[in-house]
Design goal:
The chain is mainly beta and 139 residues long. The chain has 1 helix and 10 strands; from the N terminus they run βββββαβββββ. Strands 1, 2, 3, 4, 5, 6, 7, 8, 9 and 10 form a 10-stranded antiparallel sheet that branches. The longest helix is centred in the middle third of the chain and has 11 residues.
């Protein structure tokens, strides 16, 4: 499976009651994307069975992010990977591709209720972390 979305910069989940344990707790997403003419837009879109999409509004380009058009691991699979290794609930789920040389793919960032950031490759499905010195490494 390959998800396609032209010009995606960032997507952030709205989570039911602010805390989740499975993909069914995701109510919808804030999307930020850049068009071919360089203008960035933000909008919200609900996940089924909820319905509704907000009108896209122009925003200032969020620096530090790479534009990407596809990824292999959707949020449901990323949360399954998270749940297979970590037995915690999550309070944030974000998809982005940081503009740094060590980042070779887009990443799912899942923040736990204890404040730990779990990073999952959106193409590889690998789990990553930062050590105390700030070095990005595979778990």
């Amino acid at each position: 499976m390959r998800v396609k979305f032209k010009g995606l910069l960032f997507q952030k989940a709205h989570i039911k009651n602010g805390v989740g344990s499975s993909s069914s707790d995701i109510l919808g997403w804030d999307y930020v994307y850049r068009t071919v003419d360089g203008i960035c837009y933000k909008y919200y879109s609900a996940e089924p069975p909820l319905i509704g999409t907000m009108q896209a509004v122009p925003i200032i380009y969020p620096h530090g992010l790479r534009v990407f058009d596809s990824y292999k691991i959707d949020y449901k699979k990323a949360i399954d990977i998270f749940n297979s290794k970590f037995h915690e609930m999550f309070v944030a789920t974000i998809l982005a591709w940081p503009l740094t040389p060590e980042c070779k793919e887009p990443y799912w960032y899942i923040k736990t209720t204890t404040g730990y950031d779990v990073i999952i490759g959106a193409d590889s499905g690998k789990i990553y972390s930062y050590d105390l010195q700030g070095t990005f490494k595979e778990e």
